[in-house]
C-alpha cells in the first residue's frame, strides 16, 4: 500500500507540474499575505517553528530526494546560504514524505549545511498549498510572504541574490 500511495503522490505532482501554474518554471513571482505557521522536526529530531525565524529572511523550499529537479537545485541553495552566512537569512528545506535516514544520507552526500525538515505526512505542504516540487517561498523578516517559485531555480545567481538582499534588514 505504501508504494502505491507514493506512486500516486508522485503521479499527481508530475501531472500538476505539467499542467499547472502560470509563468515559467523557476520564475520568481511576487506573493503576499502572512506565511502559514509550522512546526517540523529536522533530521536530527530538533523542532523548528517558522516563528523562530522572525527578523530573518527565510527561503522555505519544499522538495524530495526522488524529485530530480529538487536534487539539482540543492547545491545552489547551499551556496546561497553560504553567501549570506552571518546575515539575517535562513534556508529551510522541507522534505515531502520521507524519513530521516534517506534525507540524512542525501544531505551528507551533497554536504548540505542548512536545516532539512521532515513533513512526513504532507500536512505542512498542504497548508502551504504546495502542488509541485520543488516549490519555494521567500518570507520577509516580518513573516509575510514576498515571493514564490514553482520549479527549480539557480538560487545563487546574481539576480536572485539581489532580490533577497533587498529584503534583508538594514545593518
If you had to describe this structure to a student in words, what would you say it looks like?
- The protein is α+β, with helices and mostly antiparallel strands and 171 residues long.
- The chain has a single domain (2-167), classed as 3-Layer(aba) Sandwich (Glutaredoxin), CATH 3.40.30.
- The protein is 35% helix and 23% strand.
- It has helices spanning 2-19, 68-83, 100-110, 123-127, 158-167, and strands at 28-30, 39-42, 47-49, 57-63, 89-96, 116-119, 135-139, 145-150.
- The chain has an eight-stranded mixed sheet.
- The longest helix is centred in the N-terminal third of the chain and has 18 residues, at 2-19.
- Residues 14-23 have low confidence and may be disordered.
Per-chain topology:
Blueprint: H1 2-19, E1 28-30, E2 39-42, E3 47-49, E4 57-63, H2 68-83, E5 89-96, H3 100-110, E6 116-119, H4 123-127, E7 135-139, E8 145-150, H5 158-167
Parallel strand pairs: 4-5, 5-6
Antiparallel strand pairs: 1-8, 2-3, 2-6, 4-7, 7-8
Short description, anyone?
By secondary structure, the chain is an alpha+beta fold.
Count the helices. How many? Answer: 5
> What's the SSE pattern?
HEEEEHEHEHEEH
Q: What oligomeric arrangement do these chains adopt?
A: single chain
The strand count comes to 8
Gross morphology: globular
What tags apply to this protein structure?
about 170 residues, alpha+beta, Glutaredoxin, eight-stranded mixed β-sheet, 8 strands
Amino acid at each position: 500500500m505504501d508504494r502505491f500511495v507514493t506512486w500516486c503522490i508522485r503521479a499527481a505532482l508530475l501531472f500538476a507540474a505539467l499542467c499547472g501554474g502560470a509563468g515559467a518554471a523557476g520564475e520568481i513571482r511576487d506573493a503576499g499575505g502572512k506565511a502559514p505557521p509550522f512546526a517540523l522536526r529536522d533530521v536530527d529530531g530538533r523542532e523548528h517553528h517558522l516563528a523562530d525565524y522572525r527578523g530573518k529572511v527565510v527561503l522555505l523550499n519544499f522538495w524530495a530526494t526522488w524529485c530530480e529537479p529538487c536534487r539539482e537545485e540543492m547545491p545552489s541553495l547551499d551556496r546561497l546560504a553560504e553567501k549570506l552566512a552571518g546575515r539575517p537569512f535562513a534556508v529551510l528545506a522541507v522534505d515531502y514524505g520521507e524519513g530521516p535516514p534517506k534525507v540524512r544520507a542525501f544531505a551528507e552526500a551533497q554536504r548540505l549545511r542548512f536545516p532539512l525538515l521532515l513533513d512526513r505526512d504532507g500536512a505542512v505542504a498542504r497548508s502551504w498549498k504546495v502542488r509541485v516540487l520543488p516549490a519555494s517561498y521567500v518570507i520577509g523578516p516580518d513573516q509575510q510572504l514576498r515571493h514564490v517559485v514553482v520549479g527549480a531555480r539557480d538560487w545563487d545567481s546574481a539576480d536572485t541574490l539581489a532580490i533577497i538582499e533587498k529584503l534583508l534588514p538594514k545593518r
